[in-house]
Amino acid sequence: MKSKKKLLLQSAFLAFLIIGTVIIVRQQRSTPYQKDTGFIFGTVYNITYQYDKSLKADIEAELKKVDGSLSPFNKHSIITKINRNEDVTVDKMFADVFNLARQISTETDGAFDITVAPLVNAWGFGFKNDTQPTRHAIDSLKQLTGYMKVSLDGMKVSKKDPRMMLDCSAIAKGYACDVVAEYLRKRGIENFMVEIGGEIVTQGINEKRLPWKIGVTKPVDDSLNTNQELQTVLNVTNKAMATSGNYRNFYYKNGKKYAHTIDPVTGYPVQHNILSATVIADNCATADAYATAFMVMGLDKAKAVLGRHPELMAYFIYSDKNGNNAVWFSPTMRDKIVE
To answer: For strand 274-281 and strand 256-259, is the pairing parallel, antiparallel, or unpaired?
Structure first.
């Protein structure tokens, strides 16, 4: 009798679980996907998420927090005040990015460096001018760069030279993706894709109940950003992805091509053979920074870093010795390649 009663209770509990699961699945299927688009950090964002209403206002509030901390184009941001040598206490966002940037600078022997702004500006890729600098000017500016010359003491930034400037452009968009992703998670949202200027964080499944798939653009000279031909497609579900390339941001002067990625060590635009570096990591700030660093380092040095960091996945498109496009990717990336 007791065993029969126990069996009935177990059956009832199992039925309850099945019915509950069916209700949850139906609810998930019926909940619409919101698609918010806007403009931030001088670029476009696209955020898709499964929720019963738009959260665009809240999302933009999060993005404005990042802008108010890290944008050098915002006259009132913390980083702008630091660059003007004002007495300012940094916020948690700035501290998080500064500390991560310093860690990655160390790991890449200075290939990633948030003090590179004066050199970027001198070459015309920042917000000042496009006059080509002389060797003497580059040597002078290199005295004002170097990640070891700045530190975060408590919540105050110290610079060895007051003329030094910080520029987090190569990590801030990725960090902003992480901030929005964390906000969506706190709202209980399980399925989403956050994309800001090509940097991406995904979780769960898309509207078609499939994993999130992201294309990597084929690297051809495309300063107008009109080329949409894909080199490959990657499955980046529950990961973050960032791509850095010199095939869109460049200019020609006196018949020579100058790429937008500046080598902090030499002070000159990089001349390495990597055309495009795509990195997949657990968070987008990390992916963003390493993608930039790998463009600076070149293929061999980038491979060495990846050997020390198995948690990173990378997909490189490079120019081989014959000038033809070739591909190399880390072994862990193989399972992510869809086509």
So the answer is: unpaired
Question: Residue 111, by phi and psi: left (phi above 0), alpha (psi -120 to 50) or beta?
Answer: alpha
Confidence band of 339 (pLDDT split at 50, 70, 90)? low
CA angle 181, 237, 285 (to 5 degrees): 45
Distances (CA, A) of 24 to 49, 144, 330: 17, 58, 38
Give the model's pLDDT for residue 4: 63
Q: CA-to-CA distance for 250 and 141, rounded, in angstroms?
A: 21
Q: Rounded to whole angstroms, what are the CA distances from 294 to 10, 163, 317? A: 57, 27, 11
CB neighbour list of residue 60: distance below 8 Å, 6 or more residues apart = 38, 40
Q: What is the pLDDT of residue 316?
A: 94
Residues near 193 by beta carbon (within 8 Å), at least 6 away in sequence:
46, 47, 48, 49, 200, 201, 202, 203, 206, 212
Residues 6+ positions from 282 with CB-CB distance below 8 Å = 239, 240, 311
pLDDT of res. 123: 81
Q: What is the pTM assigned to this prediction?
A: 0.85
Burial 5-21 (b: 16+ CB within 10 A, else e): eeeeeeeeeeeeeeeee
pLDDT at 25: 44
Q: How far apart are CA 175 and CA 136, in angstroms?
A: 35
